[in-house]
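Quick one, tokens below:
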């Protein structure tokens, strides 16, 4: 249990947001769904969809769960994201690294060094990280249109729901691996896949 932090099991704000959407589950649809961040056409994202800032979920989107390093296969693509959007306009968001559970932001610092990307520092868990995301990009609420911020993540009821709540552009990717996921996530993933089927996103 040492590396499986309790905060990753229990997230009151996340549960509340899920309850808020319980009668409008049909609205929880990502704007785009792809297998991985490798499959996105970055110029299209920037010039057609008008995305300026990207927030990557960490676990199972960029890294294997609980790992610091970006998955090797994704590294060249991350360099492409940096060129297209600018390094300062990309950030990683994790419910562990960069959170108040991350003492002295040691884990966040390691990830920043390994990836060359900023990690969002936040007191609350997802989804209550809107102001922290703006702060990471040195933005005020008046500086940007919310759909200029894109969130990319592997969890429909976490990353995509958070993005929908704030009016971000949302991209759902498939998880890098299903290994080492705790039982709660396994059950929620089944429900998420069920919702995607109901919403005709998945066949
Ligand atoms: Mg994830």
């Amino acid at each position: 249990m040492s590396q499986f932090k309790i905060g990753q099991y229990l997230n009151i704000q996340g549960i509340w947001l899920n309850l808020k959407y319980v009668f409008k589950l049909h609205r929880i649809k990502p704007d785009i769904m792809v297998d991985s961040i490798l499959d996105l056409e970055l110029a299209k994202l920037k010039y057609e969809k008008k995305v300026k800032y990207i927030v990557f979920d960490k676990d199972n989107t960029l890294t294997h769960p609980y790992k610091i390093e970006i998955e090797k296969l994704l590294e060249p693509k991350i360099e492409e994201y940096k060129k297209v959007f600018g390094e300062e306009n990309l950030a990683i968001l994790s419910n562990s690294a960069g959170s108040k559970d991350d003492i002295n932001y040691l884990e966040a610092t390691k990830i920043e060094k390994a990836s060359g990307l900023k990690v969002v520092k936040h007191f609350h868990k997802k989804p209550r990280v809107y102001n922290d995301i703006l702060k990471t990009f040195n933005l005020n609420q008046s500086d940007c249109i919310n759909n200029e911020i894109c969130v990319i993540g592997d969890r429909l009821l976490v990353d995509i729901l958070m993005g929908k709540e704030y009016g971000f552009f949302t991209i759902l990717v498939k998880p890098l691996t299903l290994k080492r996921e705790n039982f709660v996530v396994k059950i929620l993933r089944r429900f998420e896949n069920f919702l995607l089927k109901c919403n005709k996103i998945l066949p």
